[in-house]
Amino acid sequence: MRVDSAEKKAFLVACGCLVIGGLGFRLTMSQLNVYLQKEPVPLRNALDELPVTLGDWKQVGKDQQLSDAVVEELGTKNYLDRAYVYQSDSSKGIFQVHLAYYTGMIDTVPHIPERCWGAAGLVMIGQPVLRPMVLDSSKWDLQNGPIQAASGKRYSQAAVKEPVTRKDVMVNLPLGDIVMTASTFQDPKHPDMTFIGAYLFIANGSVTPSALAVRNLSFKLSDRYAYYCKVQFSFRVYEKPEIAITMFDQLARNLLQSLLPQLMRSLPDWPALENSSTPIQVTSS
After folding, report:
1. Dihedral sign of CA atoms 64, 69, 73, 76 in order
2. How far, CA to CA in Å, does 97 sit from each of 16, 32, 84, 93, 120?
3. Per residue, what are the HEC states of the chain?
4. Could you tell me the pLDDT band of residue 221, with boundaries at 50, 70 and 90?
5. What pLDDT digit, counting tens, does each position of 130-161 carry?
6. Which terminus has fewer CB within 10 Å in the chain: N or C?
7. d(CA 271, CA 152)
8. From CA 202, how far away is CA 213, in angstroms rounded?
9. What is the Cα–Cα distance from 64 to 82, expressed in whole angstroms?
10. Beta bridge partners of residue 196, listed in sequence order
């Protein structure tokens, strides 16, 4: 097959335009500080290093180890499944706390109760409901935290004790209202028991109760890094649904009050990342 010189020139010009256009696009994105490919950022502390005592709550039993198949389905090896009991009395309340950490990815679909619990035979009652978790901020520092450049909002800070030195260190809390999405379920085999699954997400320094919004938070074009952490509580009680959800609200607020600052000690310090110009080295686990 013969190709004349004019066609060769046209082909070479087209290839040159593609190369120049690609380089120009990357240069423009760099100049605008736009990151289409996100870099992963490691946890500062492993999730299983969370204290076994969180305020009025104490760990009961051992951390649950998921099977390889479940971990593959979960999409991350950075997880924690731990039961906490309220005031050392299981009759007052037990929460199964599930944490799952993802970084450098945006295509992971979060596993949430309204999508997953039905496969276990539970039947959802009504629709998921947003449950505001109004925490006590009287011991938080609301005046001296760093300011997020994009929004002009100031991060609140809380003091937590380092497990080794026992000294107080300040951690930056996520921006946004603390709200959980809660779903109520019943088991046809145990109709007198109510199950509640609730969750929120911490993503790139902000918090959201939405499994859809978390992808927007963790994939802002101006952010070099991307991470999100799912915080899920599972609660079951021999009560009617309306009583169970009232109990859940009180217990969840109490647990989050102590859990949130400790969790932020493990998650990346997002204000520091926002001001960092040096890429972070991530070691494989």
Report:
1. positive
2. 56, 41, 7, 13, 18
3. CCCCHHHHHHHHHHHHHHHHHHHHHHHHHHHCCCCCCCECCCCCCCHHHCCCEECCEEEECCCCCCCHHHHHHHCCCCEEEEEEEECCCCCCCEEEEEEEEEECCCCCCCCCHHHHHHHHCCEEEEEEEEEECCCCCCCCECCCCCECCCCCCECCEEEEECCCCCCEEEEECCECCCEEEEEEEEECCEEEEEEEEEEEEEECCEEECCCCHHHHHCCCCCCCECEEEEEEEEEEECCCHHHHHHHHHHHHHHHHHHHHHHHHHHCCCHHHHHCCCCCCCCCCC
4. low
5. 999 999 999 999 999 999 887 899 999 999 98
6. N
7. 12
8. 11
9. 6
10. 184, 235
**Residue 228 banded pLDDT, cuts 50, 70, 90:** very high
C-beta atoms surrounding 180 within 10 Å: 25
| Residues 206, 175 contacting (CB under 8 angstroms) | yes
Q: At which residue do the structure tokens 């979060």 appear?
A: 110
Asked if 202 contacts 262 with a C-beta cutoff of 8 angstroms, the reply is: no
C-alpha 36/C-alpha 46 separation (Å) is 28
pLDDT per position as a tens digit, 19-59: 454 444 343 334 434 444 678 899 999 999 999 999 999 99
The separation between CA 265 and the C-alpha centre of its own chain, rounded to angstroms, equals: 13
Side chain identity at residue 21, one-letter code: G
* Of 172, 168, 178, nearest in space to 153 by CA: 172
Burial environment of residue 57 by CB neighbours within 10 A (0 to 12, 13 to 18, 19 or more): buried
